[in-house]
Design brief:
The complex is a heterodimer of chains A (393) and B (316). Chain A is α/β, with parallel strands linked by helices and 393 residues long. Chain A has twelve helices and 17 strands. Chain A has two domains: 200 residues, Rossmann fold (3-Layer(aba) Sandwich), CATH 3.40.50.2300; 129 residues, Rossmann fold, CATH 3.40.50.2300. Chain A starts with a helix and ends with a strand. Chain B has one domain: ABC transporter involved in vitamin B12 uptake, BtuC (Orthogonal Bundle). Classes of the chains: A alpha/beta (393), B mainly alpha (316). Chain B: It is a multi-pass membrane protein.
Chain lengths: 393, 316
């Protein structure tokens, strides 16, 4: 009896592993030596809490890599993307970054998708002197540590920062919507949300608006009716909810069901196809978000990218995919200007990025390694993002 | 403290020396050092939880809470206040032990599921305290912590944890703890102060959990409240249960296997959790008591006339 049990166990494990080994090994590009390729290590959230962001970003990166390679590569060398999963955990992100540098010997690091995981990799890049470009980490301190007043020499980003987003939406509320009263409803467990709330508040108040209440919720909350009832009695013109799509979708749905018709606004954390499913199409009317780009943009560069992305993945790219795509081109551009894969030269070239033409607009990096670029304000109409206005920095 | 004990220590030190030589000779690169540190941290966590869950039989799922206290207190000491790492480490351990004491008295009158829920709640309270405290960075946590932990720190940390816990278990106090696990009423009838031993188990367990927290905080550059949610507590619990409740060697082997498994599945993210979970399920079906549950490894090394109360230790 014992023997047969053991036998079953062994066979089960063996079949499982062989079956998985077959499906599992999907490396991007060939693993040749560094001589004729430029290796980019992508430290991304492919599983765990924000897997949707990392996966989408990797799609953008891969598309850019294929395009660059089919156009002859950079300096006669092909790009190769090595991706590794950090499971949306901080300590794993440190290890993933180290693995990409020491085991895979990458020339440039990309990632992570969210600020917390990026923080964990910043010191690895600094210590190993490998340039790192995060496509979408928006926390102000990633590239420039404000507490220590020190620039992270090897760290760059391709997106605008948190404080800019809050400012854009506060200006939009005061100038375009002519709002006088606003309620702030923050995700208290998210630093991103708190950052956006802070910059919105200071800008909105400096424009003469009034914040009538500041409420908060926690990630993974599902019932927001108690707070929304209180907000309803205050009758604000704008409700600022700078959270992530999961909770925001429920907040919008419950608010509309309770008869709150005020404009609800948020940042790029709203931008995921799941938002429409959670909130419902008609509930999203009269909501506005700031974002990195819009799929409605008639610019031929944007159209070309969207067509290519749709052809490959059969879905409309979200902001994460676009930023991954742009960041890959930024790296390619820097390597081309550096003329070699020397880490120091790539770092210098990245820091000197000027008027780089990306899908998300013209990108120039300032002295803090942060891009100076425009943000777009989008309005949801029947579940579709429509372009409302573009805000220059 | 017999001959066997010192042989165990000697073997461990040789192991330490070999690895240190490999690191100094740059044969082991940073990725392997990362993995070794991660292994060490997990072993300390699992072995200390095993004292509470495995030997004393108190079902605690708030271990990540103790770990976070060690991590935060040590990081505040070194990063915010500028003290040295050894002092920060000590304060972190002590703070966690005090938390173990505070949580111990009111909740240890609870049993089984009720205790589990109380410890779960405790872990979450600690996390929420960090989350809403701007002095420690709120949701973003503390970043820019200097990397101090290295192979030597982690090795001697593991050694101290294993030796201390193993010696407690083999002592009178350990026997008392095991009797509490087996039958509280019988233990009390024999004159054992049940609450006292439960509190001791919690304090010692929390002390080492704090140590693991301090080591990991000073290796991975930053800490955030999300790293210490109840999923982390479960992760530690899984190490212990898979390795074998009440077996130090089993716990260590279980931890090493699962940590390495998780590391090497990094390249196939689509299947990572599937394989990981499947191995857990299969182990629990075919080895319900864990890999080394109810097996005393030291038995294999003992021959006929070995001393009966030998404080044998296992190499980490």
């Amino acid at each position: 009896m014992m023997m047969s049990k053991k036998f079953i166990a062994v066979t089960a494990v063996l079949t499982a592993t062989t079956a998985l080994a077959g499906c599992g090994s999907k490396s991007t590009g060939s693993s040749s030596s560094n001589g004729d390729t430029i290796k980019i290590g992508a430290n991304l959230e492919l599983t765990g809490a924000v897997a949707a962001f990392g996966t989408s970003q990797l799609n953008g990166i891969k598309l850019a890599m294929e395009e660059i390679n089919s156009a002859g590569g950079v300096n006669g060398k092909k790009l190769e993307v090595v991706s590794a999963d950090n499971a949306s955990k901080k300590d794993e992100s440190t290890r993933t970054a180290t693995k990409l540098i020491t085991e895979d010997k990458v020339d440039v690091l990309m990632g992570a998708a969210i600020s917390g995981d990026t923080f964990a990799a910043v010191e690895v890049a600094n210590n190993k002197k490998i340039p790192m470009l995060t496509p979408s980490a928006t926390n102000d301190d990633i590239t420039f540590d404000h507490k220590k007043n020190k620039l992270n020499d090897y760290v760059f980003r391709a997106c605008f920062i948190d404080s800019f987003q809050g400012k854009v939406m506060a200006d939009f509320s005061a100038d375009n919507l002519k709002a006088k009263n606003a309620v702030i409803y923050t995700d208290n467990s998210s630093d991103y949300s708190k950052g956006l709330a802070k910059s919105f508040k200071s800008e909105f108040e400096s424009k003469g608006g009034k914040i009538v209440a500041e409420e908060s919720y926690q990630t993974k909350d599902t019932d927001f009716k108690a707070v929304l009832t209180r907000i309803k009695t205050l009758n604000p013109e704008v409700i600022w909810v700078p959270g992530y799509y999961e909770e925001v979708g429920k907040i919008v749905k419950q608010a509309r069901e309770m008869g709150i018709t005020a404009a609800i606004e948020g940042g790029d954390g709203w931008d995921a196809p799941q938002l429409v499913d959670i909130a419902g199409k008609e509930n999203l009317n009269n909501t506005f978000i700031s974002n990195h780009y819009t799929s409605e943009d008639p610019d031929p560069k944007v159209r070309k990218f969207i067509d290519a992305f749709k052809a490959k993945y059969n879905t409309v790219p979200d902001a994460m995919a676009v930023l991954g795509y742009d960041a890959t081109y930024m790296v390619a551009d820097a390597v081309k200007r550096a003329g070699s894969t020397d880490k120091e030269k790539i770092k210098e070239a990245l820091a000197n990025t000027k008027n780089f033409e990306g899908v998300t607009g013209k990108i120039s990096l300032d002295k803090n390694h942060d891009p100076v670029k425009a943000a777009v304000v989008l309005e949801y109409k029947d579940g579709k993002q429509t372009f409302n206005t573009k805000v220059q920095p | 403290m017999n001959k066997r004990f010192f042989i165990g220590i000697a073997i461990s030190l040789v192991f330490y020396g070999v690895v240190q030589a490999l690191i100094s000779g740059e044969i082991l690169n940073d990725f392997y050092i990362d993995t070794l540190v991660m292994l060490g941290v997990n072993i300390i966590l699992a072995v200390s939880l095993n004292l509470i869950n495995g030997f004393t039989g108190q079902f605690s799922i708030g271990h990540a809470g103790f770990m976070s206290i060690g991590a935060y207190v040590s990081a505040i000491m070194t990063t915010n206040l500028g003290y040295s790492f050894p002092l920060g480490l000590l304060c972190g351990c002590l703070a966690a032990a005090v938390a173990g004491l505070i949580i111990g008295f009111p909740t240890l009158r609870l049993k089984g599921d009720y205790l589990a829920i109380a410890t779960l709640g405790f872990g979450e309270i600690i996390r929420i305290v960090w989350l809403n405290n701007d002095y420690v960075g709120g949701a973003a946590g503390l970043n820019g912590i200097e990397r101090v932990t290295n192979w030597s720190w982690i090795f001697f940390g593991v050694l101290v944890a294993v030796v201390v816990i193993q010696n407690i278990v083999k002592s009178t106090h350990g026997r008392a703890m095991i009797s509490v696990r087996e039958n509280e009423i019988a233990a009390e009838a024999m004159g054992i102060n049940v609450t006292k031993y439960k509190v001791i188990a919690f304090v010692v367990g929390a002390f080492f959990a704090g140590m693991a927290g301090a080591f990991s905080a000073h290796y991975f550059y930053g800490i955030a409240p999300t790293s210490y949610n109840f999923m982390k507590s479960f992760e530690i619990l899984v190490f212990v249960v898979l390795g074998g409740l009440g077996s130090t060697a089993g716990t260590i082997i279980g931890t090493i296997l699962l940590t390495l498994l998780f590391t090497y599945l990094q390249d196939i993210p689509e299947w990572r959790m599937v394989i990981y979970s499947m191995i857990l399920i299969l182990t629990m079906i075919f080895r319900p008591k864990g890999l080394l549950g109810n097996v005393d490894v030291t038995k294999f090394f003992k021959k006929g006339g070995a001393s009966k109360n030998g404080g044998t230790t296992t190499t980490p």
